[in-house]
Amino acid sequence: MSAGFPLHNYNIKSGSPLRGKGEEGADIGLNESLSVAAVSAQSSGGLGQLASSLTQAHNDLDNFFGSPAPAPAPAPAPAPVQAPPPMADAPWAITETIILTEDALNFSFMGADILPASFPVLDDIANSLAYHTSVRVEIAGHTDNQGDDDFNKTLSLNRARAVVAYFVSKGVDRDRLVARGYGMERPLDSNETESGRASNRRVEIVPLW
Fold it and tell me: Is CATH 3.30.450.40 the classification given to domain 98-208?
């Protein structure tokens, strides 16, 4: 033993890896490796070796109990969703009023049954509505001035409703379609000629914004 270092009465029990005992069995809370390292350093007489041994013992304790878990890395930001490119053969969008006269859309005489010859043009419009799902339209029915005003209003409304029903049968949402009948109130041409009256008997597809 070197001078200046008193002999401590450490009772190290080699069978216990965690605890040592002091005088009268007092628990001094040292593990065996720390106590042995301290005594070894005292016997060698070097303060530097003692400090080194204590540092090593402290590191051993850290390794035994483990270091704090590192903070989790932040989750990566989700990649922005890319809108699909427009189809090369996408249907045209309805951006202005489409006027369907008897040349394109025809009904039964004095009735609201759509004749089969009119299906292709209605299918074309239905395809546009099915593709451009943000578009809402008014289906407006019109007549010439032949007949009673109330009758013409009812007839024009029923024809507009028939067109709405056809679009719905093709998969268009009913909430995007509005049916209105104007009768003879809004002529496009003079009702004094047959050609003028034919122009006034029509259905209009009007985009709503």
Answer: no
What is the CB neighbour count within 10 angstroms for residue 26? 9
Domain residue ranges in the chain: 1-66, 98-208
Residue 18 has a pLDDT of 47
Query: What own/partner pairs with CB < 8 Å and gap ≥ 24 does 54-61 have?
Result: 57/31, 57/33, 60/33, 60/34, 61/31, 61/34
∠ Cα 82 131 173 (to 5°): 120
Consecutive 10-residue runs of the chain (209 residues): their mean pLDDT?
49 49 50 43 50 60 58 70 58 94 94 97 96 96 96 98 98 97 96 96 95
